[in-house]
Amino acid sequence: MTEAHEWETTLRQRGSLVEALGSSVGHANQNMITAVRALERVINEDTWREFKPRGSTSVVRPASFTAFLTAPRFDGIDTTIEIVRNVVQGDTILTNRLDELLKTTRKR
Q1: Cβ pair 104, 48 in contact under 8 A
Q2: Would you state the pLDDT for residue 105?
């Protein structure tokens, strides 16, 4: 294989990587927007306090918002507080609401 052919192969591989990155970033951005909107609804509508997972006959009532965030899927969203903070970091109102919920326990 000639040096020119090897370089052409390298450039094509780089092009594929750039395309994959662009696609991933585009999908990540859309997923982030969807996550922020869903989290905003769950917080504003107090959905997290009482819900029935799809396919379940049991009602889930987390003891706190932290418990909701960290509980395994179907009992919560199986994530960390740090990840949720990263998701909402550009939204001051949602960040403040999140901080309020993380400080309190279930009062209803």
Answers
A1: no
A2: 56
